[in-house]
Amino acid sequence: MALERLCNKPCAGRFSDLVAAIGNTPLVELPTLSPKEGVRIWAKLEGTNPTGSVKDRVARALIEDAEERGALARGQRIIEPTSGNTGIALAMICARKGYELTVVMPENVTAERRQLLQMYGAKVIFSEGAKGSNGAVEKALELAAQDSSWYMPYQYGNKANPAAHYNGTAVEILEALEEVSAFVAGLGTGGTLMGCGRRLKEAFGEAVKIVAAEPMPGEPVQGLRSLDEGFIPPIIDLSLLDRKIFVRNADAIRFTRRLLEREGLFAGPSSGAVARVAVRIAEELDEGNVVFLVADGGWKYLSSGIYTRPLEELSDIDATVWW
Ligand SMILES: Cc1ncc(COP(=O)(O)O)c(C=O)c1O
């Protein structure tokens, strides 16, 4: 088989500091996932960002946007509700820039997440675990309303969130591929789908389908939300989504394992859910490129056992501790 020469940026440049090194993530073809010859599946590997997730892009955009608007003065306190990745990314960036950060998150997130936040120097306030990420949003809004010395970036309603993808993630995809038939991502705040969706539609019009992977209601996948559960983040414009496809928790785990076993890709469980949907969309196409977003690596989820335990045992994993 002839080896195809791919556009490669081996060390992705030279940067003045870690915050400047965010983005420029690899786009990697996953041939074993492709259901037919003419359809190619590509993964955008966001786990290679400095704190290990796509949210580095968003956290940088949220802080820099607030600084530019004069909404944030040096030394001010920042508070944000997050189930993990945004908090971790904000914690690194706030520590670099000299802001004190408090993160509100559900009490039942994995130990790795708490440790990462503490490592980067953030303070953590816990919200009721059973209320998931909606409970964290509620509590953070309440606290911010009581004390004006707190600035809340609020990624769910802040245009800087989709803008990070419109000006970053999507541009990188367009630099790497001349055609995209479908873009698939998970839906948390909706920032990835809105920002990438808008830019890819501008480039390819209706020829590109923007597809959301949603957890089945009542079957949480960490990092993702179902729009049917009541809260639609204000940054979401539903008309940009061509489709949303539900994924069962068990399928998300199965595909997370498939990525690891067949492609060597150690991704978090939301990427398993997204990969499941990418393959479904690829099956419906005759040719073209399907791009899906790998929001983070598997490191923070190791303690859940999803990478090592026999698949048939995994049905007894308590899904509620994943938020
Ligand atoms: C692991 C993981 N996957 C996917 C997403 C969804 O991304 P977005 O918030 O851009 O919709 C998030 C964000 O919350 C996440 O943490």
What do these coordinates show?
The strands form two sheets. The protein has a six-stranded mixed sheet with strand order 1-2-10-7-8-9. Helix 5 packs across helix 6 and helix 7 crosses helix 8. Helices cover 35% and strands 16% of the residues. The protein folds into two domains: 193 residues, Rossmann fold (3-Layer(aba) Sandwich), CATH 3.40.50; 97 residues, Rossmann fold, CATH 3.40.50.1100. It has 323 residues and is α/β, with parallel strands linked by helices. The protein binds pyridoxal-5'-phosphate. Pyridoxal-5'-phosphate (PLP) binds next to helix 6.
Taking all residues together, what is the mean pLDDT?
Answer: 90
Tell how many strands the DSSP assignment holds: 10
Q: How many separate domains make up the residues? A: 2
The helix content is: 25-40%
User: What's the alpha carbon Rg, rounded to whole Å?
Assistant: 19 Å
The number of helical runs is 8
What is the gist of this entry?
The protein is of the alpha/beta class.
